[in-house]
Amino acid sequence: MSRQLRGLYAITDQTSGEGGKLHAQVEAAILGGARIIQYRDKSSDQAKRLLEATTLLTLCQTHNIPLIINDDLALARQIDADGVHLGRGDIDLRQARHELGSAAIIGISCYNSLQQARDAESAGADYVAFGRFFASATKPHAVKANIDLLQQAKRQLTVPVVAIGGITPENGLQLVQAGADMLAVIQGVFAQQDIHHACRQFAKLFEDYQR
26 with 10: CB under 8 angstroms? Predict the structure, then answer.
């Protein structure tokens, strides 16, 4: 599996996949151009989360796309997912690396802190994520990050940089131009009526702008 982390990073929403639609939605996202999928479900229904994550892993493997599990190291290890994404208050990165192994993709939320990103890179993160950059329906009270931070991060870091938070095809190009290797999107993908088309619009940003 290619580990080149660039392009649309589609993050699932536990509400949009209701009624057994999640598999079809994620497949549409992949066919539309998503290059990495994150399974994000904050519910306490462990059986549901295990079933959905397992099903999505099979789908992603079919398309040679990495599946990352949000926050839940135990679930990532249980299904042998491609990696885990960790935020504030989650397990230590080095512990996650110890448990998942050297091949796992481990991403870290750094919010609006360049120093936190530097520390994550030093600790062995595979990518760092900044945001929110725009108003976000998923996390309306998240700290604000700016374009200058993204530019500084790209100059100072060697790991891929992810931008997240209220990103649309209309505002995403400026983030790609500023150095974002990936655009992480939830509502802009899974809340759209035509998921395939939405993902094509995001994918086109990377196709049109080649650094």
Answer: yes
Q: What is the mean pLDDT of residues 183-201?
A: 97
- The string of DSSP letters for 2-15 reads -----EEEEE--TT
**Mean per-residue pLDDT, 186-197:** 96
In tens, the pLDDT along 61-93 reads 999 999 999 999 999 999 999 999 999 888 899
Structural domain includes residue 1: no
Q: Domain of residue 52: give its range.
A: 7-208
What's the domain count of the chain? 1
Q: How large is the average pLDDT for residues 12-29?
A: 86
Question: Nearest to residue 17, comparing CAs of 45, 36, 1, 35?
Answer: 45
- Alpha-carbon span 53 to 65, nearest angstrom: 14
pTM for the model stands at 0.94
Strands (DSSP E) contained in the chain are 7-11, 34-39, 67-70, 83-86, 105-111, 127-130, 161-164, 182-185
Q: Is 108 within the bounds of a domain?
A: yes
Please, are residues 203 and 32 in contact by the beta-carbon 8 Å criterion? Answer: yes
Query: What's the rounded Cα separation, in Å, for the pair 183 and 10?
Result: 8
Domain of residue 16, CATH code: 3.20.20.70
Q: Indicate the SS3 state at residue 55.
A: helix
Assign 1 a pLDDT band (cuts: 50, 70, 90): very low
